[in-house]
Amino acid sequence: MMRMVLAFLLYGGLCTCAIARAADGPLARTVDRILIVRADGVNFQETVNGLEHELGADFICDERILNSDTAAAKPSGKAPATIATAEQLYAAIAQSRPKALVLMDNDAIRMYGDVQKQWKDSVPFPPSISLMAIRVDKAISKLKRATGIFYEVPGVTILVNLRSLVAEPVHKVGVIMRPSMADFVRESAKWCKLENIELVPFEVAEDRMDVARAVRTGVRRLRERDKVDALWILNDNFFLTQDIIGGGWLPALERFHRPVLVGVENFVTLRSRFGTFAILPDHYGLGVQTAGMILRLKEEEWEMDGPPKVEQPLAVYKVLNLEQARKSAHVKESALIEVDKVIK
Amino acid sequence: MLRRIAVWLLLAFWGDALAGAKVFVFYPSLARPLAIQEALSKKCPGLEITVFGRLTDLQALVVREHPQAILAQNAVLKQFPEYLPRMQGTRNGSATEDFVLLSIDKPFDVAKVSAAAIGVVGMLDRKEMDGFVEGLVSGAPHLNRVTKVEDLLPLLIFQSVAAVLVSEANVREFQKKSQAHLVEAKLEKGKVGLVAAGMLAAPANGGAVGSAVSPGDEQEILSALKALDAGTLALLGVDAWK
User: Which ranges of chain B does DSSP label H, i.e. alpha helix?
Assistant: First the structure.
């Protein structure tokens, strides 16, 4: 019964042309609604800021926070509603009647997937743009009318930035990975080739028992045999547990006197002895990029056909550990003004 | 209690009196706003300088704080009609710079611009930016907006756009950074005004946007800007003032 009521609401919403009207002002303006489903937290809020600023007054963004009892209040003072189930998301879609959904993080994507599965005989669902999720390409592969932006900063962006910072050439860069990341590294290698940078992978099997040892072997091989100019450490939790950092990366990097690129700011702090240069997603920029995709969707009258397409993230936030960098390369002092945060 | 309020008011008054004239700066470039702010503040110790990386932040704070001056490219300054240009930045004797369409491998066909997606830095609001770009490229392309100049390079590398709209000065910087084969297409009407200093004029509505900059403050701001060295001026994309 509940499903029927929700389906009726959704059908009614979509059929009544799904246009909201701005309530204020004598000349009511037509506006499009976007439903944002996201986790709670500063980074998610910053992404929403970029999205809302860029979309401007022609859009209304409704938000639903996932699995949270205490969603932070917006600057307007009102806290967005929270949701925890596919039914609640379905109801939110029916109530908001969005032209598109923005799904932030893997849980939001999963939940929309559940909605599409449970109400598969219902009317067509609004298209979705997914972001801030691990391997968003895989996460949205089963969604209908879906697109997204990778959260992982592509190697070419990281390495072009490194090359601008150091005097030494950056031609060969090592990367330690497991087979499930091979497609991501291959895609990165393709873009790196355009910039005359070769990615040299070292693969560690998923079922390998002593991963820390494999990391030590990998770093040694990349240093001695492949003579790489830098090492790119992927944001893959498989390699970033405390045990593997302490028993694998740290001892291996003591002899690796080249820049080490990471995707986590904590890894370039003065005490970490780990990374040289961290390149992270710029969340405000991610929001702006998402807004661009929404505007393009609108131009295409909200049509989205074919297999899911995923864009690379464009804006990044750069953090440099200067002391560590000076130990591993000749830093171009004039280029430091292009770094967001220099840790001295 | 009254004494406490009096002391608080006195401190607030002194604080205001001692603070320098407020100057807001918005100039999207490869340098980080904080780096520009530190350099300008060091050279202009008498001024309270804030450098913005995003237009929305500038717009919000101008409304709230009514700075005495705004330093920005002419096109941006025009969005703030209460601020009248008093001093124009120049480079190599010119008050404008050339913008070009930069692409990879083959030059962009400017005649087909209306059918293409172009990358731009969102230095103006969306609708104003559409008009600004149309004036430069003589067409109406789809615009992919980014917040930072450096984000234009990945747009090109990932082939998300056919070309990006950049100043010739930035083309040289991109060529230093990238080993991709970057090619520029000149634009007949591609001239863009360089950074100018706009001063808060007497508001037409009797003070709703704050009071006009005093002659003393204006003089102080202009003198400080004229005294900037070449390296600091370069951060604003100019080498002299007129």
Answer: 2-18, 33-43, 55-65, 74-77, 126-137, 152-157, 168-177, 215-226, 230-234
